[in-house]
Amino acid sequence: MSAGWFRRRFLPGGPLPAPGPPGPRARPGPRASPVPYRRPRFLRGSGSAADASRRPDARPVRSPAQGRSLPWNAGYAEIINAEKSEFNEDQAACGKLCIRRHEFGAEEDHEWQVLCPEEFLTGHYWALFDGHGGPAAAILAANTLHSCLRRRLEAVVEGVVAAQPPMHLSSRCVCPSDPQFVEEKGIRAEDVVIGALESAFEECDEVIGRELEASGQAGGCTALVAVSLQGKLYVANAGDSRAILVRQDEVRPLSSEFTPETERRRIQQLAFTYPELLAGEFTRLEFPRRLRGDDLGQQVLFRDYHMSGWSYKRVEKSDLKYPLIHGQGRQARLLGTLAVSRGLGDHQLRVLDTDIQLKPFLLPVPQVTVLEVDQLDLQEEDVIVMATDGLWDVLSNEQVARLVRSFLLGNREDPHRFSELAKMLIHSTQGVEGGPTGLMSYDDVSVFVIPLHGQGQGHSGH
Amino acid sequence: MSAGWFRRRFLPGGPLPAPGPPGPRARPGPRASPVPYRRPRFLRGSGSAADASRRPDARPVRSPAQGRSLPWNAGYAEIINAEKSEFNEDQAACGKLCIRRHEFGAEEDHEWQVLCPEEFLTGHYWALFDGHGGPAAAILAANTLHSCLRRRLEAVVEGVVAAQPPMHLSSRCVCPSDPQFVEEKGIRAEDVVIGALESAFEECDEVIGRELEASGQAGGCTALVAVSLQGKLYVANAGDSRAILVRQDEVRPLSSEFTPETERRRIQQLAFTYPELLAGEFTRLEFPRRLRGDDLGQQVLFRDYHMSGWSYKRVEKSDLKYPLIHGQGRQARLLGTLAVSRGLGDHQLRVLDTDIQLKPFLLPVPQVTVLEVDQLDLQEEDVIVMATDGLWDVLSNEQVARLVRSFLLGNREDPHRFSELAKMLIHSTQGVEGGPTGLMSYDDVSVFVIPLHGQGQGHSGH
């Protein structure tokens, strides 16, 4: 499998460099032994997987993932960074996910790790992080989240590999009918993977909070992760990046965006439950626009946390405060500050000139969707497209799908076609090559194109 | 339009009576003047719409809707009560919804109401209420909810009839760009109807709370309401009844069920936010089964409010408490007591032998879905089926759709075919007439069959 990854900071008129040659492991095969995972290099020119194990020289933050020899292999995927600095707010990571099975006991630890690599449960991991307030959180997330996930999966690996997760870990069955209770609740192995993804995001968020505080830095980032494991693709999203499945006759969203607008009810409800979070400076109610003095006493359209429809209320003085969520669409802001409502970091973020914290309103928890890859009749051209919001601001799912189909059908022989496709998608947002909308993205844009063919055939099994 | 409504309490082997002849207004036309709305009579035999304006002799509760001359007309629909007492826990209501337009000022009130009926905005209303802990709440809801809705719609009727709701009621435009703000927020007339339905459910819940307290009665009920208005069908649901659209080549759910299982995260989160609601007697965590002493110290599967997946935790003593939500499927109970998580009433309901209240965990707010009836190419056999959970426990949506299609195609000439269809659906749950599943419902079952043909052609316009 190869994955094309491109990202760029928009430079008006600046041509994208051609991608470098694929690394020696651009097509993955089983690895004889795990090698340390590395973030992709951040070059201004082109890079390939051959360079991926070289540690970048400078790090803006100290990451707990650094210096550890993780059972990861980033070498199988072709990763090319186009025109981004190492300190860009968009960051990414991908690699092979090797999860130790615990049955052998800790004493065999090192030897077993070297001699019995086939006893790893292996999968693949792709992640995009879109930072704000600086690159620090995104860089930490790219360095950390995969190891949080690996640890969480290893802690519950018995539940992941079983046909049905055991009620008790280590199979200390207390009640003979325990499997029946698990079955009646409909608990499947994939629910344990989902739980591991959820807790990995939370753990990573805590790590970022500690690290940023220790280094006196700030910032936050969205996180979009795809994990291929045991014939399924898990897509975990916290923020406004997006993943879609593109096939010949199907376009399927694999994630939803989490913004102040899409999470309005949750955010308003939190302010209703803990009004002190607004410090008397904001109103939790939503109005069509910010109210003014001459609206006082009139009946205006409004929504509260428990409403999906709209009603009218008589305007009181407290309604004139700045709204908890203001603006619409891409302009919508939480507490006048943030455009996303889920993500990692932002522990220190406060509303300008106040002591009002953003963090209580932000969730690090992702929403996870599961694609049954092994149930699909996969074709060569079936891919997942993962991208930060810069792409989706300019192109709809359908437009991306049309570009994907026509590009792949026209480039059947090119061994780099998935990387080229990622580059072409980014080009389409830059007002070059006659993009389908004529719109341009002024945001960072990062794209993974992940071919699915081969995934559903036990490729990422034990 | 005619609507067939059937309900019965299961009596083993008891044959259903044949329906009576249709009332004179079984096919509705415009009414010259509004007549008081009445709940359908509760007869052991058959009734028809001709009887519907006769007030039932006995009322178990005092209803604020009684004695009022509401601009309603229940006469257009054929309503037949099969083998249920007036005090059954299932209750229903249907009628014409006449919403006064406010432009004329209050002084013209009575005269205008008589002389200018065409200035009503008219629609149709159907409602099913499935009571628990006695019929009192369901009877109150059947008597009250339609008038709450009418009042709420009249209060915002300007927003309902406009192409785009005005930001300010009474068109006192403060800012010239107000319509633009409303448009940017995507606020449509249907959002104002949804808001009216939401607030009507809340108001009705408050009325039921006051009335039950005043009369020393108890109980609660689910509520499923369909409203046909201006070419759209609004389905508002709070509880575990269900409405589906059945067409020749389509079955579309129009509601979701609200049970302790489907609302687990909301319920657990409330207990996390206000742990005092559990009075130290319950654990908010979900486990595959109730834990016991010998689970202590082991790692078991669990879920908390922020998780959609499952993980493992080490069992502590507090985890041995009774679970906030216990059991699965139809057996799932909130605080060991209730099988639904939304509905009206239950203000006094407490966990047996404790002071723990159920009400904080119950929402009266419905979820509203909108069917664009005027966008459908309607056929004679296109219907909405609304039914209480007794039907859906035994028949799937697809099974109901198959029964609907084959019955209607085989009974094209029968003027009572929609009523007969409702009766047949109930028969299918009673183990008679060779029901498709062989399953039997021991619950009350109530069914509306609403033919859609004619609805999308301005039939229920102003």
Describe the structure.
The structure is a homodimer of 462-residue chains. Mean pLDDT of chain A is 81; it is low at 9-78, 104-108 and 456-462. Chain A has 2 domains: 3-258 and 364-451, 4-Layer Sandwich (Phosphatase 2c, domain 1); 264-339, no CATH class. Chain A is 24% helix and 20% strand. In chain A, strand 10 (299-302) and strand 11 (311-314) form a beta hairpin. In chain A, strands 2, 3, 4, 5, 6, 15 and 16 form a 7-stranded antiparallel sheet that branches. In chain A, helix 2 (136-155) runs antiparallel to helix 5. Chain A has helices at 109-115, 136-155, 157-161, 178-184, 189-215, 264-273, 389-392, 397-410, 417-428, 455-459, and strands spanning 4-8, 72-73, 90-100, 120-132, 220-229, 232-238, 242-247, 250-253, 282-283, 299-302, 311-314, 322-323, 325-326, 333-334, 344-345, 367-371, 383-387, 445-451. By secondary structure, chain A is α+β, with helices and mostly antiparallel strands. Chains A and B meet through helix 4, helix 5 and strand 10 of A and helix 4, helix 5 and strand 10 of B.
